[in-house]
UniProtKB/TrEMBL annotation:
The chain crosses the membrane at residues 32-50. It holds the Pfam family Phage_holin_3_7. This is Phage holin family protein. InterPro entries: Phage_holin_3_7 (IPR008473). Keywords: Membrane, Transmembrane, Transmembrane helix.
C-alpha cells in the first residue's frame, strides 16, 4: 500500500507541474494553490519513499483538505469535479454521468 501512495502522490505532483496555461489568464491564487499541492504531493511521495510515514501526515492532510473544499464548492457533486468547461468533455466525466452500466 505504501508503494501506491508513493506512485499516486508522485503522479499528482507531476500532473500539476506539467500543466500549461496556454492563452488563459494568470490567476495568482490558483497558482499558489497549485504550488502548495505540488509541494504537498511531492513531500508525501518523498517522505513515504524514505520511510518517514509519520511526517507525511501533514502534507496529506493539506491534499485531503483541498479535495474537501473542492467537493464543498460543488455541493458534493463528484461529477462536477471532472467537468471540462470547454467543448471537449472529460472521458471520466462522461463515464461518471452514465446512467446504465450494461
Amino acid at each position: 500500500m505504501n508503494l501506491a501512495h508513493i506512485i499516486v502522490a508522485g503522479l499528482l505532483a507531476l500532473v500539476l507541474l506539467a500543466f500549461q496555461r496556454g492563452s488563459s489568464q494568470h490567476r495568482p491564487w490558483a497558482s499558489l494553490l497549485a504550488y502548495l499541492l505540488i509541494v504537498a504531493a511531492g513531500a508525501v511521495a518523498v517522505l513515504r519513499l524514505f520511510g518517514r510515514h509519520e511526517l507525511a501526515d501533514l502534507p496529506q492532510l493539506f491534499i485531503n483538505l483541498a479535495l474537501l473544499l473542492a467537493l464543498i464548492a460543488q455541493r458534493g457533486n463528484v461529477v462536477e469535479l471532472f467537468r471540462n468547461s470547454g467543448p471537449r468533455q472529460s472521458r471520466l466525466a462522461i463515464l461518471l454521468r452514465k446512467e446504465t452500466w450494461l
